[in-house]
Design goal:
- The chain has helices at about 5-10, 15-25, 30-45, 50-55, 80-95, 115-120, 135-140, 165-180, 195-210, 225-240, 250-265, 300-315, 340, and strands at about 60-70, 95-100, 125-130, 145-150, 160-165, 185-190, 220, 245-250, 275-280, 290-295, 320-325, 325-330.
- With about 350 residues, it is of the alpha/beta class.
- It folds into 3 domains: about 5-45; about 60-165 and about 300-325, Rossmann fold (3-Layer(aba) Sandwich), CATH 3.40.50.2300; about 165-295 and about 330-340, 3-Layer(aba) Sandwich (Rossmann fold).
- The strands form 2 sheets. A 6-stranded parallel β-sheet has the order 2-1-3-4-5-11, sandwiched between helices. A 6-stranded mixed β-sheet has the order 7-6-8-9-10-12, with helices on both faces.
- Helix 5 (about 80-95) packs across helix 12 and helix 8 (about 165-180) runs parallel beside helix 9 (about 195-210).
- The longest helix is centred in the first third of the chain and has 16 residues, at about 80-95.
- The chain is elongated and about 90 Å long.
- The protein starts with a helix and ends in a 6-residue tail after the last helix.
Length: about 350
């Protein structure tokens, strides 16, 4: 038979409240009483229930993991996988467990993250964002529950966010092309209503204008982050007549699709067209030629999210938000020759 806190209290000749205080190290209990109760707990192997500990400490040590909105890639996608693994490892060392929330009712409008947070007595939430974010997320953002967003700007009283500097993602690509005498450039984005993709597009176009480069209307295309859409977008670009010298795709999978389309149409990469993707997925290293990309520091993002959330839960710091610098990784889809790669000094 499983022992309860009342059973331990009866064995020790004290009240259940005294046992609770000793277990949770609260209140002022005499050393003799404390020693007696702890000895009984050790001898019986008693384990306090989750609800009993949460009630006594007003902390569950549980973090909600929410995949918000419409996620256009699988959860085993390297971006999600690496960010969440990094977060999980860091938050686990800080003493928390993770409860995953499904938004399977997204299309039915029945999400109520607030109610679920209260039901499970969550200490805080990490929110991984897709597109078309449901209103329930913003209700949670406005609440007193500590939240950290990844790729979503949260502005609530106990909220913060961490995201890659997506404007810098694009500016690094355009600047690289400019420094290597590539002036005619195209962009393949995610869905036209994708917040992250549109930030990248704005950063791309702004840098193109600042550097006096050329981009034609037909050279701006949209996909869904998957390889097939990159393939179709590249074919639309090539059907337009004028051919760009450089292409930036907002995901590596679309860039790989663009690479396939260019090669099928008889163009040499990188001699005729240079291609850069984004994310640095494993496949980039093994494409032919290996794909240049912009690497997001997914491990750093996960760790930052964990420590930021822990600090807010324990009121060690005010909510703050962080933009993480991306890293340009140049491989063979951009390097025609050693001479070209050192054509101009860095900005």
């Amino acid at each position: 038979m499983k022992l309860t806190i009342k059973d331990i209290a009866k064995m020790a000749g004290v009240s259940p409240g005294t046992v609770s205080k000793i277990i949770n190290q609260t209140g002022s209990i005499g050393p003799r009483t404390k020693e007696k109760v702890l000895k009984i707990i050790e001898e019986t192997g008693y384990q306090p229930s989750f609800s009993a500990k949460a009630l006594a400490t007003k902390k569950s040590n549980l973090i909600g993991l929410i995949y918000a909105g419409e996620i256009h890639v699988e959860f085993n996608h390297p971006f999600f996988n690496e960010v969440i693994n990094s977060f999980k490892n860091a938050i686990g060392k800080l003493g928390y467990d993770i409860l995953v929330f499904s938004n399977s009712n997204f299309s039915k409008g029945k999400e109520d993250y607030m109610a679920r947070c209260k039901h499970f007595q969550l200490d805080g939430c990490i929110i991984i964002a897709g597109d078309n974010i449901e209103s329930a997320i913003y209700e949670l953002d406005k609440s007193s529950i500590p939240c950290v967003g990844v790729d979503i700007e949260l502005t609530g009283p106990r909220s913060s966010y961490v995201t890659t500097d997506n404007r810098k993602v694009s500016s690094k690509v355009v600047e690289h092309y400019y420094l290597h005498s590539v002036k005619e450039v195209a962009f393949i984005g995610g869905p036209s209503d994708s917040v992250i993709s549109n930030i990248r597009k704005e950063g791309f176009l702004d840098t193109v204008r600042q550097l006096g480069m050329t981009v034609q209307d037909n050279w701006i295309q949209y996909g869904d982050y998957f390889e097939g859409s990159g393939y179709e977008a590249m074919n639309h670009i090539l059907d337009g007549g004028s051919i760009p010298k450089g292409v930036f795709a907002a995901s590596d999978m679309m860039a790989l699709g663009a690479l396939k389309a260019a090669k099928e149409r008889g163009y040499s990469v990188p001699e005729d067209i240079k291609i850069i993707g984004c994310d640095d997925v494993e496949a980039c290293r093994y494409s032919d030629p290996p794909l240049s990309t912009v690497k997001q520091d997914k491990e750093k993002m996960g760790k930052l999210a964990a420590y930021m959330l822990h600090d807010m839960i324990n009121e060690h710091a005010e909510p703050n938000s962080i933009l993480v610098d991306p890293e340009l990784v140049i491989r063979n889809t951009c390097i025609s020759s050693v001479k070209e790669n050192v054509a101009r000094p860095s900005l």
